[in-house]
Specification:
Distance between the termini: 136 Å
Order of helices and strands: HHEEEEEEEEE
Number of strands: 9
Keywords: Membrane, Transmembrane, Transmembrane helix
Strand order of the largest sheet: 1-2-3-4-7
Number of helices: 2
Transmembrane segments: 40-62
Number of domains: 2
């Protein structure tokens, strides 16, 4: 019977004839470099993709900030002037003093709906027309007793002037220095509103 030592000798004799080539050190180093280059190449592509994506996003953000960054208080107002102002039924809360239950007059309602300018001049003119004056009846929803302060700014921002209606919203003659579309900022008591009025050259 073959013992363990004999089995070991037989195995060594059988494997002595098998040639196992030894990889040269230069080939091993080259293979390692190729693997590193492949890793660096993949990493480089990933980095390039991130940079490209960032470059695509940044201009959109900057463009969005630029388009939305305009302060509306600094823009020239007065883009909604209507000339001529059409005859319409006056709002119910502004009909006091009219005999007709549904009076029709040219009027401009404040942007916040707190005041209305009823125009007795057709049209408003600057300089004032020879055959009529620039009469405006101001009617407010609530406070009717506080002095009405008017700051009028020409649409292109080239001129600003102020007017006062003593005793609060009511009948007035409002002459403005130039023809054009005027933006009126109105203040009386604790109330405010804005509206636009067109003045034409007579």
């Amino acid at each position: 019977m073959i013992d363990e030592h004999q089995v070991a000798e037989l195995l060594r004799a059988a494997t002595d004839d098998i040639a196992v080539p030894v990889a040269p050190a230069r080939d091993l180093a080259a293979a390692g470099n190729r693997r590193r280059h492949r890793r660096w190449g993949v990493a480089g592509l990933a980095t390039a993709a991130v940079v490209a994506a960032t470059a695509a996003v940044v201009p959109v953000v900057l463009s969005s900030e630029g388009s939305g960054g305009t302060d509306p208080t600094t823009t020239a107002p007065g883009a909604s002037c209507v000339d001529p102002v059409p005859n319409r039924v006056i709002p119910e809360w502004a009909r006091s003093g009219f005999s007709d239950p549904r009076p029709r007059m040219p009027y401009v309602l404040g942007d916040d709906g707190a005041i209305v300018a009823i125009l007795f001049a057709d049209p408003l003119a600057s300089p004032p027309a020879a055959d009529h004056n620039n009469k405006i009846l101001w009617v407010s929803r609530d406070d009717k007793s506080s002095t009405l302060h008017i700051t009028a700014t020409l649409a292109d921002g080239s001129d600003t002037t102020t007017r006062v209606v003593d005793g609060g919203p009511g009948p007035s003659i409002i002459d403005l220095p130039k023809a054009g579309c005027w933006h009126l900022a109105l203040r009386w008591g604790d109330s405010t509103d804005t509206l636009d009025l067109a003045y034409v050259a007579p």
